[in-house]
Amino acid sequence: NPYYDIIVEPGDKVLLEAEVVEGELVSAYIADHIRDTFIYLLIGLFVLLVLLIGGKSGLRSLLGLLITIVLIAQVFLPLLFRGYQPLPLAVLLSVLSIIITMVIIGGINRKTLAAIVGTASGVLVAGVLAYAFGNLTKLTGLSHEETRMLMYIPQGIQFNYQGLLFAGIMIGALGAVMDVGMSVASSMFEIKQVSPQISLWDLFRSGMNVGRDVMGTMTNTLILAYLGSSTPLLLLFYAYNVPIQRILNLDTIGTELVRALSGSIGMVAAIPLTALVAAWLAMRDEQGRVGAASEAEHS
User: Fold this and answer.
1) In the CATH scheme, what is the code of domain 55-298?
2) pTM of the full predicted structure?
């Protein structure tokens, strides 16, 4: 049974766990296969490809990702263990991650500001929807085994499991929403630079057109990611011919649907929000340059 038994062959590297009593080895057993070597290799391949294809932009993206991981590991998780509520922490983490990542990628300018405002708004929309519909559907936050295991950790901390679910939804939506926000803002400022005489309404429409193109692929990405991770569960439903009404009322399925749909709606909402802010800031930027040029001519 591959679930219970660890199957090894000659030459395999394995992880041993030993029981030592008063300095003497009492017993040892195979705990698992050694996997970290290949995991590091895969990480190295990912970093190499991002740097080769992305160049300086790829390096900035990796730096933003690294900072987000550090924020989660060194700020978010320790504060959860100290008893802080997950949802406010997720909001703080999301805003910090958005600001830091966008500034690293785009610099300090109006384009970055538009992307930050639009992305933060989209993530907040995802969080609000997750909170509202999570409560309406009475999701427990305990649909996954690892969450239930938190009830028995030696620290004895009483987590807000619903809050952990909503926080996870916000953080999970972060990457896709940031991608959409920066894509829309960047394209709109490029359009404004190429066509300085464009009106605010036409600029907004151009941003919406770009956003619609991005939305088509990114929505599929989010939904298919959740469906892909639930393939074994879907096979069980298929094998036992479980009716759709029963499926939709399961806590596990409700959790995944709220997660996927809240994140997707947050991403979609970021498109008009980013386009609106970017159009307004781009027009103000142009007015500021015209005003500065007029003052220079008069002087």
Assistant:
1) 1.20.1640
2) 0.83
